[in-house]
Specification:
Strand order of the largest sheet: 8-9-10-7-11-12-13
Structural class: alpha/beta
Oligomer: single chain
Order of helices and strands: EEHHEHHEEHEHHEHEEEHHEHEHEHH
Distance between the termini: 49 Å
Largest sheet: 7 strands, mixed
Shape: globular
Strand content: 5-15%
């Protein structure tokens, strides 16, 4: 019998050892004092116990993963867990020590690198004195709340800082933001979230093309690990390209006539309402430029699919939106498959679109549960359907580099969180900043593990 060789201690007598083996058969052995330990059962029984414990452990882990339907790296917060939360009052509460408080301070920022229309983005009003902004009661009340996911696994998202994001964008590649004016708001928010480490420049298209670069005097400079081709002047950390509908008007017309039955053709499917949408090839080629060092393309759209932009009703607009989304995902998939950069280094994220709230200025606190009635203004009541279309298209594409993130729920619960109108969201309330923090969390976790959902 294979036993550990341990001598008896001085004065220790031989011990009769008994075990009950398989089938109830008894085994007895007298210790010779030459190495038999009465506390250790035979090797066969130890192996049986180890096997049983191993099986139990495997079964337990499997049941946990089956129940949660997710596998991922440690401390990963699935998007459904992040979105499943509530708005709670800040603790300690936000107090004003004067009649006028800096809206940047109230938003948790030290400043903003973006200087264009701050009062519009913040939902505050210019006082006309020293460039300061006044916060009326609506904006002040809205600033008192913070988003709290229900699951503890999402604490990592709450702890994301501007410095963490700056370091990641430099060392692991930048973000190319594509979308409408709500995405433009996220760009402004990013200039505050990463202040004072970044600067903002407009590109050739003016406000429709904005770039965020690393400042040369950032305190983080000496600790950053720069890629070989990184340039302070030519490598953006974040770029925002205004893209209302995913394709340019000529591309949309071509797609409409290609996919719509001839009998239903409209000679002019688009109205003359101005939209800002570059061609697909122009922005996807920008994303794939090595010298720009983009690693994540983040798209969101939906607000500009209304009868204001199309010459037909919402039912037909919804059908065409589905056509646009499916074609967009298909072309993105094709481009990624031909990308010379190593597989998996570039990611395409579709962020769910958000809707507005009717009569938003009459609300002074968040909803504590999902609204029962859909919104009826503009196309807001269709936004959930739009998001479902995008989610389905991404799922059916089944591409490891394309993901859909449902991040609209925190905004849906904030009728009190709007800016100058009832669609746009006030920067600094934690809604848009939540998008940024979750995107950072998701992308960093995705780099650590190929399976995160």
């Amino acid at each position: 019998m294979d036993r550990v060789n341990r001598p008896l201690r001085d004065g220790q007598a031989p011990v009769e050892l008994s075990w009950r083996g398989p089938g109830g058969k008894g085994y007895t052995k007298v210790s010779s004092g030459e190495g038999d330990d009465p506390t250790i059962p035979p090797l066969r029984e130890r192996r049986t116990r180890t096997l049983v414990l191993t099986i139990l452990a495997v079964v337990s882990v499997t049941l946990i993963l089956f129940r949660t339907n997710r596998v991922g790296p440690p401390h990963f917060c699935p998007v459904e867990d992040y979105s499943n939360g509530t708005w709670v009052l800040k603790d300690p509460p936000l107090h004003a020590n004067t009649s006028r408080i800096s809206v940047e301070h109230a938003s948790g920022f030290k400043g903003c690198a973006h200087a264009f229309k701050p009062e519009w983005y913040f939902g505050a009003y210019q006082s006309g004195q020293g460039g300061e902004m006044d916060m009326d009661k609506y904006r002040w009340d809205a600033a008192q709340w913070t988003w709290k996911p229900n699951r503890k696994s999402c604490r990592a998202v709450e702890e994301v800082t501007g410095e963490m994001l700056v370091r990641d964008l430099v060392e692991n590649g930048g973000w190319l933001l594509l979308g409408d004016s709500l995405t433009e708001e996220q760009f402004f928010s990013l200039s505050c979230f990463m202040y004072p480490h970044v600067r903002v420049d407009w590109g050739r298209k003016g406000w429709e093309e904005q770039h965020m670069y690393l400042r040369s005097n950032t305190p983080l400079y000496d600790s950053l690990k720069f890629p070989p081709s990184f340039s302070l002047d030519y490598t953006p950390l974040v770029t925002n390209l205004r893209t209302d509908q995913g394709f340019s008007p000529p591309e949309l017309r071509k797609l409409y006539h290609k996919k719509t039955p001839t009998a239903q053709h409209l000679r002019q499917p688009l109205t003359t309402y101005p939209v800002a949408s570059p061609s697909f090839d122009s922005y996807i080629s920008t994303f794939l430029l090595d010298r720009r060092n983009y690693r994540s393309l983040i798209m969101s759209m939906g607000s500009h699919f209304t009868p204001r932009e199309f010459n037909f009703g919402m039912d037909d607009i919804f059908k065409f939106f589905k056509t646009v989304v499916e074609d967009w995902v298909s072309q993105v998939k094709e481009k990624l498959d031909k990308d010379p950069v190593a597989t998996g280094q570039r990611r395409v994220i579709v962020r769910s679109a958000t809707s507005g709230h009717g009569e938003c200025k009459s609300h002074f606190k968040p909803y504590q549960s999902d609204p029962e009635k859909p919104e009826t203004e503009y196309n807001w009541g269709w936004m959930d359907k739009f998001n479902d279309v995008f989610k389905t298209a991404v799922s059916e594409a089944n591409h490891p580099q394309i993901s859909f993130l449902s991040l609209e729920r925190p905004a849906k619960l904030r009728p009190d969180g709007h800016a100058a109108d009832c669609l746009h969201i006030s920067v600094g309330l934690g809604i848009i900043e939540g998008w940024t923090k979750y995107l950072y969390h998701y992308l960093t976790m995705q780099r650590r593990s190929d399976v995160v959902t």
